[in-house]
Amino acid sequence: xxxxxxxxxxxxxxxxxxxxxxxxxxxxxxxxxxxxxxxxxxxxxxxxxxxxxxxxxxxxxxxxxxxxxxxxxxxxxxxxxxxxxxxxxxxxxxxxxxxxxxxxxxxxxxxxxxxxxxxxxxxxxxxxxxxxxxxxxxxxxxxxxxxxxxxxxxxxxxxxxxxxxxxxxxxxxxxxxxxxxxxxxxxxxxxxxxxxxxxxxxxxxxxxxxxxxxxxxxxxxxxxxxxxxxxxxxxxxxxxxxxxxxxxxxxxxxxxxxxxxxxxxxxxxxxxxxxxxxxxxxxxxxxxxxxxxxxxxxxxxxxxxxxxxxxxxxxxxxxxxxxxxxxxxxxxxxxxxxxxxxxxxxxxxxxxxxxxxxxxxxxxxxxxxxxxxxxxxxxxxxxxxxxxxxxxxxxxxxxxxxxxxxxxxxxxxxxxxxxxxxxxxxxxxxxxxxxxxxxxxxxxxxxxxxxxxxxxxxxxxxxxxxxxxxxxxxxxxxxxxxxxxxxxxxxxxxxxxxxxxxxxxxxxxxxxxxxxxxxxxxxxxxxxxxxxxxxxxxxxxxxxxxxxxxxxxxxxxxxxxxxxxxxxxxxxxxxxxxxxxxxxxxxxxxxxxxxxxxxxxxxxxxxxxxxxxxxxxxxxxxxxxxxxxxxxxxxxxxxxxxxxxxxxxxxxxxxxxxxxxxxxxxxxxxxxxxxxxxxxxxxxxxxxxxxxxxxxxxxxxxxxxxxxxxxxxxxxxxxxxxxxxxxxxxxxxxxxxxxxxxxxxxxxxxxxxxxxxxxxxxxxxxxxxxxxxxxxxxxxxxxxxxxxxxxxxxxxxxxxxxxxxxxxxxxxxxxxxxxxxxxxxxxxxxxxxxxxxxxxxxxxxxxxxxxxxxxxx
Length: 857
Fold this sequence. Notes:
It is a single chain. The protein is α+β, with helices and mostly antiparallel strands. Among the domains are: 12-161, 2-Layer Sandwich (Beta Polymerase, domain 2); 164-314, Up-down Bundle (Four Helix Bundle (Hemerythrin (Met), subunit A)), CATH 1.20.120; 316-420, cca-adding enzyme, domain 2; 421-598. Strands 9, 10, 11, 12, 13, 14, 15, 16 and 17 form a nine-stranded antiparallel sheet that branches. A hairpin with a 6-residue loop joins strand 9 and strand 10. It starts with 11 loop residues before the first helix and ends with a helix.
């Protein structure tokens, strides 16, 4: 039978009542701490509002309104979606218009509704085909309407539910979700709901146990024996924190917001009562608490899922093999022989990771082992750390031929690493707001260790063949792993972390029997782990004196090789965006030049000049360039040009320019860079003061980031400039854009007076806006007084390089070379400037002042 449509009654009072009641609840939450009470109160308020709206739309008694999803659990975050199900009988009345009005009214009231309208049979069919629907309906809760229809739905749904299939689908779904977040709870902007160790992991466990009939609360799982009382309390405590964090994130942002973005970390931290103190921001204190919670959730959920799986899929086979007096292998997992083994034999704690590392076929620790480790934290005390056998075991783990990365990561996940190395425990979950690192300190250290290990694995030799070649011939590579563990371990203590880390490394070596040259190398590497990147990226490595000083500092080939390998691993372990082939070439060139000096070669500019010229001539002969054609160009070039370019670049530029030495029109040539994903651009024309800035302006306006610039001025007054440029994002075929760059830049350079448009200050990234750094400018003469070195440090943004170049052009300061060094969201650029005029102190101060103004946010 049909139900006649009726006009929608006046619901303004309903809207007013709901908004006022919700605002009062949220205001109370700002000063209260009971997040469960808030979420239950919001759910009750929403229930009551929906009932009133249902009645206002005069929906018939034969229909049912049910809450599903998180709303079905009887709890609601401040700005979460409200998921409902309208259940229809098999022969429903014609009420489509009334249902549409009800849903529209709910939206008008301010409820962000997620709705579905189905019969019982449709619900069962949809649940069978879609695990998301199956999950949402699992927690369905009656609100109003026909209770008997809801009971029919509940009976049919649970009768069709297969707990084993549901378990498998949800675990697969969890793995896919974790993969989207790189399988780590340590993202700097985590999703507190979806990230590994977040609320979704806890909800998933309770969904699985509810579907299997094991219980729907931590207390019930404790009573069933799936977890211990202590584990249940830990889960409940961390669940309460994560719920509170999500609720406060909603309240502070004023919307549904589950990602703890940098902009909101400080206000959310302050809403918890955290305050900045000393060296720690309020946001850092909050994030540290979050990471510890996510870590505990990850550990305990792993235990629970294994225990649930054991009950749902009981194995007929037991022990696969006995591994030692303390451990057996059970279905590919390392299992303790008795529950109290770690209390009776604390040495077995590290033995577990050594066996995990060394035993083929063992892919993880069993739930029983993980639980025993979790409950053995009190056994990992000062006596345990100082025990000689434990120190031997730890060194054996580090010296193992394979499995080191997996073992160390697992030791960190289970908190064993931080309890063995107390200073490591201090940097677990510690954020780094340097706009360079995208990992917490502990994750960065383990990433550097992983990178060093990959150099030594034949399967990865194609990634960095030179590093793989060096480490294959490096005696006792475990020394590098020790240095990796300690290179950043003193971050966040205040002071120079390299110097503080030296003391930690020295103490570790003394306590673990590392002596002589090996101990000295570890300590030296920790002290100087930033030195090689600084020299390669900020100093003029074409200057023989720079190479000589670096060689004196290094002192031996073993130290040079160790520092090179650690530097490459360190830079690669900061952020996927920081490493590029150009930085790799800078480091490798510095390594080879220093190695030659250490081998007895004299850092002599004349011999280096002759060597490069001869090599370049050999390449030119292969290109069928006439025998003496190079002379017209080379006679106009100074020694600095040949020292700043390698032989391949000299040959390419000569081949392009030997016919155009006296050209009146600009010559621009571009080619894909021989060293990686970038475009190499050669510019040759009569020099003028605004030239460098004008070229930078072109690159900036076209979205090309300058990676390197090598600027030369010939004896007859021509500029010969070489740029390495790249797009910061996207998959670009540089061969396809080379001709376009040549044509556009040639046209721009051929029209004087158009080179210096007003700089447009590009928008800072969100990370840079949240954590701005103080811009710095340093201008000083080099040791010989021939050039001036300009160092600039600032937040990266579009147009920054052009802003700098424009100031220099306006003061007619020539640029001889530029080393553009982008470190994540920060730039550390170094320019070699013409010293003419800069000896005037007033001009120096004016240039520095204007540069600071130009790079300021």
